[in-house]
Amino acid sequence: MKNVTDSFVSLGYWPFAGSFGFNTDILATNPINLTVVLGVLIFFGKGVLSDLLDNRKQRILNTIRNSEELRRGAIEQLEKARARLRKVEMEADEFRVNGYSEIEREKLNLINSTYKTLEQLENYKNETIHFEQQSAINEVRQQIFQQALEGALGTLNSCLNNELHLRTISANIGMFGTMKEIID
């Protein structure tokens, strides 16, 4: 303790116009300096430190509150998104079922219309074949009739002379006259 009091007493012996110097006695100067510095810090820094800690505490609490609100909002959005997802999945299932039913219905309609078209084409084909057969038969008949007529005319022209021709015409006229009298 004597060293502590000696350091205060020695202040009176320092020359006023003297030079600046360091006291190298660590045991005498450091505890006093530390005590003074700590006392000043505690006295003046207590309020500042308390305010800083209170501000920090408020910021942390505000951040926690904001985080909780954001979390609640995120949970609500997640629930809404899940509800929309369920709704969309149900609609997708409904569309899928309806789509398959519609596809099957369209498939059957297409098969039926194709079958009807094939039947119509078959009928058109048969009608065309029948028409072509009738046309061919009529053409052959006309050719046969033409040839028979030409043959008959050729035979008549070669066999008939003028006198026979006149007698045939007279006989035919007579037959027509008799038929006319019967009709009247």
TrEMBL record:
<keyword id="KW-0793">Thylakoid</keyword>
<keyword id="KW-0175">Coiled coil</keyword>
<dbReference type="GO" id="GO:0009535">
    <property type="term" value="C:chloroplast thylakoid membrane"/>
</dbReference>
<comment type="similarity">
    <text>Belongs to the ATPase B chain family.</text>
</comment>
<keyword id="KW-0934">Plastid</keyword>
<dbReference type="GO" id="GO:0045259">
    <property type="term" value="C:proton-transporting ATP synthase complex"/>
</dbReference>
<keyword id="KW-0472">Membrane</keyword>
<keyword id="KW-0375">Hydrogen ion transport</keyword>
<dbReference type="Pfam" id="PF00430">
    <property type="entry name" value="ATP-synt_B"/>
</dbReference>
<keyword id="KW-0150">Chloroplast</keyword>
<comment type="function">
    <text>Component of the F(0) channel, it forms part of the peripheral stalk, linking F(1) to F(0).</text>
</comment>
<keyword id="KW-0066">ATP synthesis</keyword>
<feature type="coiled-coil region">
    <location>
        <begin position="64"/>
        <end position="98"/>
    </location>
</feature>
<dbReference type="InterPro" id="IPR002146">
    <property type="entry name" value="ATP_synth_b/b'su_bac/chlpt"/>
</dbReference>
<protein>
    <recommendedName>
        <fullName>ATP synthase subunit b, chloroplastic</fullName>
    </recommendedName>
</protein>
<comment type="subunit">
    <text>F-type ATPases have 2 components, F(1) - the catalytic core - and F(0) - the membrane proton channel. F(1) has five subunits: alpha(3), beta(3), gamma(1), delta(1), epsilon(1). F(0) has four main subunits: a(1), b(1), b'(1) and c(10-14). The alpha and beta chains form an alternating ring which encloses part of the gamma chain. F(1) is attached to F(0) by a central stalk formed by the gamma and epsilon chains, while a peripheral stalk is formed by the delta, b and b' chains.</text>
</comment>
<keyword id="KW-0138">CF(0)</keyword>
<keyword id="KW-0812">Transmembrane</keyword>
<dbReference type="GO" id="GO:0046933">
    <property type="term" value="F:proton-transporting ATP synthase activity, rotational mechanism"/>
</dbReference>
<keyword id="KW-0406">Ion transport</keyword>
<keyword id="KW-1133">Transmembrane helix</keyword>
<feature type="transmembrane region" description="Helical">
    <location>
        <begin position="32"/>
        <end position="49"/>
    </location>
</feature>
<keyword id="KW-0813">Transport</keyword>
<comment type="function">
    <text>F(1)F(0) ATP synthase produces ATP from ADP in the presence of a proton or sodium gradient. F-type ATPases consist of two structural domains, F(1) containing the extramembraneous catalytic core and F(0) containing the membrane proton channel, linked together by a central stalk and a peripheral stalk. During catalysis, ATP synthesis in the catalytic domain of F(1) is coupled via a rotary mechanism of the central stalk subunits to proton translocation.</text>
</comment>
